[in-house]
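Question (not urgent): is this output format expected?
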Amino acid sequence: MSVAPQAAQPPAQQPQSEARVEAVTERLTGPGALLARLLRVPPEPAPPMGSPGTLRVFRAAPSYVKYRMVGWLIGHMMTFFFFVMGPMVVALALAVADDVEPVAAGLALVMAGCAVAFWLFLVGMGYLTVRVDRDLRWYMVTDRSLRIREGVWFVREMTMTFANIQNVSVSQGPLQRMFGLADLVVQTAGGGGVPQQGAAAASMHMGRFRGIADAQGVRDFVLARMKAAGGAGLGDADQAALASPTVAPAVPAAPLGGDDAVLAALRDLAAEAARLRGAMGR
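Got this back:
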């Protein structure tokens, strides 16, 4: 007796949130993937507004990781000397002193050990953050707008339309020049009073393509897209129409008719006013 083969059961589907996080972590390996999964890093951002087929994605250069590593190393060395070395020296001095109670010396050693352990924890987490930071950066440009996604612990995403972009410039520091990197800085309109409003307001009107290798070329590309879209920081055609609505021509008022009753009433009012002035002058 032949038995009909059973149909293969489809694999259980992951929840949508799990599948979207998996799309991000699959590009990472080792502890970096574990950190991205624990922090629930959002997936690749959706393309910004634009025509189909015009999307261009830019990424930070591979040397951006080395550049961040240098900054990470300098920062943690300073932290060690200022916040770890001091407690260690004090604890050792108390331990070798003759006139110090053993309990106090032991407590100082425990505090110094806790400071070292906490510093090592910060070093490890900072290292993992720097390693995955480049892979979680997205710079997307279409024919009408651009989108920037960055951050590991705190994810920041902003979208700018070419109609609102006011300035595109390149920023490069000495350390960036050593690694052949630069930042493309994009400013939107409405940020003229940003210095008085603080850094939080400034970040709302400014986006950066951090750590790109060909910043000049990317700037020319963005400016060409702005020119093609007609964006010069003054708004597009629809916004211009809203900003300058058409004013209907004034319609001249119709002349008053020569109604005899109205004229008679006006004469009576004038006569009454004359009588009142005469009575007040007496």
